[in-house]
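Need residues for this backbone.
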């Protein structure tokens, strides 16, 4: 039993960032779906505008959770970082809006099914943009992390 717990903990340490990205991504998706359902079903706003509004709600939720929980990023230029985060989300958000407009408003596909398909692609793209652009670690940050890992492994 002790060995199993150690293996699980080692796996967690190795894949911590991906684990937390999936958790935060799941919560962001809940925020996005929940606000989309409210705008589309309760407020009777068309799918494309409902997608835009739900996107804005999701981005507002996603920035601090990704910064602190997922990437544990302590960058000094918060405005630049936030701008980068928002711009990457604009790119994926436009994809989602276009997808919903085409497959729901024009082709009359199932709104929630199309939202699910769009969300999967957006989730992957958002991770890549966050990892490689927005929360990219500086050389000094990478050296500090490596030193911490070496110290922990002793």
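Answer:
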């Amino acid at each position: 039993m002790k060995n199993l717990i150690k293996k699980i903990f080692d796996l967690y340490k190795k894949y911590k960032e991906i684990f937390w990205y999936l958790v935060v991504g799941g919560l962001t998706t809940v925020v996005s779906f929940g606000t989309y359902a409210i705008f589309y079903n309760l407020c009777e706003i068309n799918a494309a505008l409902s997608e835009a509004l739900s996107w804005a709600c999701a981005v507002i939720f996603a920035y601090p959770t990704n910064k602190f929980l997922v990437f544990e990023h302590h960058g000094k230029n918060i405005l630049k970082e936030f701008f980068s985060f928002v711009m990457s989300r604009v790119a994926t958000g436009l994809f989602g809006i276009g997808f919903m407009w085409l497959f729901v408003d024009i082709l009359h596909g199932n709104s929630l099914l199309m939202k699910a398909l769009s969300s999967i692609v957006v989730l992957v793209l958002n991770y890549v943009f966050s990892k490689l652009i927005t929360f990219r670690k500086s050389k000094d940050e990478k050296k500090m992390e490596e030193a911490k890992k070496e110290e922990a492994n002793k």
